[in-house]
Specification:
flat, three-stranded mixed β-sheet, mainly alpha
Length: 515
């Protein structure tokens, strides 16, 4: 029984092994068949990809071939055009070479002819020399003088005759030149005067401010006069409120200050709010407006006259001329007239009219500087021109128009003459006006030299001097002493008509802000 069981086990094991072997064999067969199918599919796909790539390559090749053919054809056409140009140039060069050869042959013929003619001329010259020698020998034999002696005598006779003729000719020219010069000079001056109309303006020291009603006068004066004092302190102008109906008088020698005061009053009256703080604000605002207007006036003047390249500071000074008077004329109008006259006269004399116009406009620039140095206005104007890079001949014309320096250019006498034509004023009046302006400036500068003085204003044509001092620098007792000291110094150092009233103003201000 046991043997039968063992035999069954062995048979089962063998059957199992055989089954496994068969399963392995079958699996291998199936795997081989699948791999063959995969390989075949891959080969088919590779063939398809290969065909696609070949087609793409062919298309690209065909496209590149077409582009290359186009480039080759374009280059070929270009080469053909260049060859045609070269052939044309070759033909032109050959033609020029032929022409040159012809000209060379012609010049050779001309040279041969010239050589022959030169030989003939030399022969004729030798013959003429022989004849000339024979004639000289005959003349020497007849006159009893040698050729050198005859030449000397002839030269002396010619010199004497030439001298007498030259003297007569020179005298005739000098007389004619004098007559012509006087006539031409008068003609040029008359033409210049006729072509420019001179407009004069009366030099004033007051400005009348018109108001709608006399009620506004009380508001301008303010409580206990505080508004009018604030206006006078801020502008440096004396404000006269009298019985003149609907008018207030602004008195001061500086036209710029009077204009600032007039514009400030106009704005205050229109606004209706008149008090010291508002007055200071409006005056400062108006000062800026006037300064801008000065610059705009200067620019407009230079544009009107066609003058370019001026320094901005010179343009500002030209604008300031609008508010200054020159011996009965507005200084800007006088300078414009002088510039136009200079241009006309320079053109008549054949000089540069643009330079002359520039010098004429700037000739009185020394009358409107920011500071007042102890120099004549012509010299000061010349120094300002040099400072702001004006040309030397223009600076010399500015400095020499009152003969303070020597004239070194032709522009200088033109500017001097045209200044006199435009002004047409007597010399005595010039001295009086200049001395008057200088005296007012000296008054203000003298008071400013004391410590603690903030501002000074000469008013009432120099008969009163207002001195404003800092409240934190000087007390009441020192204020009284200061007025006496300034009065004594004015008596000792200055010359003036009548008497000068010195008013020293000291006030304390306290400012706070409600937030």
């Amino acid at each position: 029984m046991e043997i039968i069981k063992i035999t069954d086990i062995i048979i089962g094991v063998v059957a199992l092994i055989v089954g496994m072997i068969l399963m392995f064999i079958i699996t291998r067969v199936i795997m081989k068949s699948r791999s063959r199918k995969v390989i075949e599919d891959a080969q088919k796909e590779a063939e398809a990809i290969k065909k696609d790539k070949l087609l793409e390559v062919k298309e690209k090749f065909i496209g590149l071939k077409a582009d290359l053919e186009k480039q080759v054809s374009a280059r070929y056409a270009k080469i053909q055009s260049q060859e045609a140009k070269l052939k044309q140039r070759e033909l032109i060069l050959n033609q020029k070479q032929e022409d040159l050869q012809k000209k060379k042959n012609e010049t050779d013929l001309v040279r041969e002819n010239l050589d022959v003619q030169l030989e003939l001329v030399d022969k004729k010259k030798q013959e003429l020399n022989k004849v000339h020698k024979l004639e000289i020998e005959r003349l020497e034999a007849l006159s009893g003088l040698s050729a050198d002696e005859a030449k000397e005598r002839m030269a002396e006779l010619m010199k004497e005759e030439a001298k007498s003729q030259a003297l007569a000719y020179i005298n005739e020219i000098m007389e004619e030149a004098k007559m012509t010069a006087n006539k031409e000079a008068k003609k040029i001056v008359v033409q210049s005067i006729q072509r420019v109309a001179t407009e004069t303006a009366i030099e004033n020291a007051i400005t009348v401010f018109h108001i709608d009603s006399d009620e506004i006068k009380g508001r301008i004066i303010g409580r206990e006069g505080r508004n009018i004092r604030a206006l006078e302190a801020a502008t440096g102008i004396e404000i006269i409120v009298d019985d003149t109906p609907e008018a207030i008088i602004l008195s001061g020698f500086d036209p710029v200050r009077r204009e600032v005061a007039r514009l400030a009053l106009h704005q205050l009256v229109q606004d209706g709010r008149i008090h010291p703080a508002r007055i200071e604000e409006i005056v400062n605002k108006v000062k800026k407006q006037v300064e801008e207007e000065i610059i705009e006036t200067g620019k407009r003047t230079t544009i009107d006259l066609g003058i370019h390249g001026l320094h901005p500071e010179l343009i500002r000074m030209i604008g300031r001329m609008k508010y200054r008077s020159s011996y009965g004329q507005n200084l800007l109008q006088h300078s414009r007239e002088t510039a136009n006259l200079c241009a006309i006269m320079a053109a008549e004399l054949g000089l540069n009219p643009k330079k002359a116009k520039r010098a004429g406009l700037l000739h009185d620039i020394g009358k409107v500087p920011d500071d007042e140095p102890e120099l004549p206005h012509a010299i000061l104007g010349m120094k300002l021109g040099e400072k702001y890079k004006e040309k030397p001949d223009i600076c010399n014309a500015i400095g020499a128009h009152h003969d303070e320096i020597e004239m070194t250019s032709l522009l200088a006498p033109i500017v001097q003459v045209c200044d006199a034509i435009s002004g047409a004023r007597p010399g005595a009046r010039r001295e009086i006006v200049e001395a008057y302006i200088k005296r007012l400036n000296d008054l203000e500068q003298l008071a400013l030299s004391y410590p603690g003085v903030v501002k000074t204003y000469a008013i009432q044509a120099g008969r009163e001097l207002r001195v404003i001092v800092g409240a934190d620098k000087i007390d009441d007792l020192q204020t009284e002493n200061l007025s006496n000291e300034i009065a004594k110094k004015i008596q000792d150092e200055m010359t003036y008509p009548g008497q000068v009233k010195i008013t020293v103003i000291r006030e304390t201000r306290s400012v706070a802000f409600a937030k």
